[in-house]
Amino acid sequence: MKFALSIIALIVAALVVPFFIPGAGKQEGVDPNANLPWQIELDGQGGSRVFGVRPGVQTLGEVRAILGGEPEVAIIARPDEPGALEAYYAQLPLGFVLAKVILTVDVDPAAIIAMRERAPKAEYMESTTRKITLHPDDLAVAERLPVRAVAVIPTVNLDEATIFQRFGQPAERLPVSDKRVHLLYPERGLDIVVDADGKELLQYVAPRDFALLREPLRKAAGGQSGG
Hints:
The chain is an alpha+beta fold. The protein is built from 6 helices and 12 strands. It is globular.
């Protein structure tokens, strides 16, 4: 969103206002004050609900029925990795917030490898990352598997001050570079990645499964300190 001088203020306002002012940017059939990113319900037993979705409990088919639309379902894999089974929405209204949404399906690596062997097509997305299309039989299987995590990329950039206002102070602030930091909310099952040069990323799991988000960061930090 780097535009020329006199126009930039208008464009930024048009993008930011729908994110921060309830009712702005309202879409037909969408309650602008419901299912917002900071509205996380806890069940007191290690579970949560966000956007009407219960991570780690509901299946991909059930989550699709809640969110609506038709996400693109595929295996996303880097070299030497089985990959992750994901459902991707290019744009989805979450209350008065517009965002990209990625659902990570809970499936073991052996099953992913088997799906890859039956896949009718694979293509490169960026660099060496591949998007692998599922066989129709495997797509039907994926519908019955639980959604482990929900990732959200808002259409506007956020700063830490705004995040603190909406979500409160994090339990842990974990910088990974001069311009990139993870804000961890384990009691909510939430990791917010703030990126000065790119879009922010909000990752949700059930609080009891927060290690799914924290452990990769711990290992990465250990690798950096050991190098």
